């Protein structure tokens, strides 16, 4: 059975939270970390998961679970331009 967009987003959300739980409380991750972790192949196919990983991060922001940052400061989805990092809230 093919994975739906909703299923993929939920899986990426779980991967993001799992990666953050395995790191120091103040650590952040790149969406590419989640994309690589979620990708089930051994080629460059993880790159296709970059946008879904970003969407999953923004859903987690809306849920109050994480912050998305640039240059170490939290940003909103409308402010974010270019590379982002993801960290737990309250850092």
TrEMBL record:
Pfam families: DUF3253
Region (Disordered): 72-91
Top-level taxon of origin: Bacteria
InterPro entries: DUF3253, WH-like_DNA-bd_sf, WH_DNA-bd_sf
SUPFAM superfamilies per the UniProt record, alphabetical: Winged helix' DNA-binding domain
Protein name (record): DUF3253 domain-containing protein
Species of provenance: Streptomyces tibetensis
């Amino acid at each position: 059975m093919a994975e739906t967009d909703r299923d993929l987003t939920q899986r990426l959300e779980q991967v993001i939270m799992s990666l953050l739980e395995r790191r120091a409380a103040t650590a952040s991750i790149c969406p590419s970390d989640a994309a690589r972790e979620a990708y089930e192949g051994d080629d460059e196919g993880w790159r296709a998961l970059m946008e879904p990983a970003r969407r999953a991060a923004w859903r987690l922001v809306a849920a109050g679970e994480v912050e998305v940052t640039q240059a170490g400061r939290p940003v909103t989805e409308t402010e974010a331009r270019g590379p982002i990092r993801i960290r737990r809230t309250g850092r």
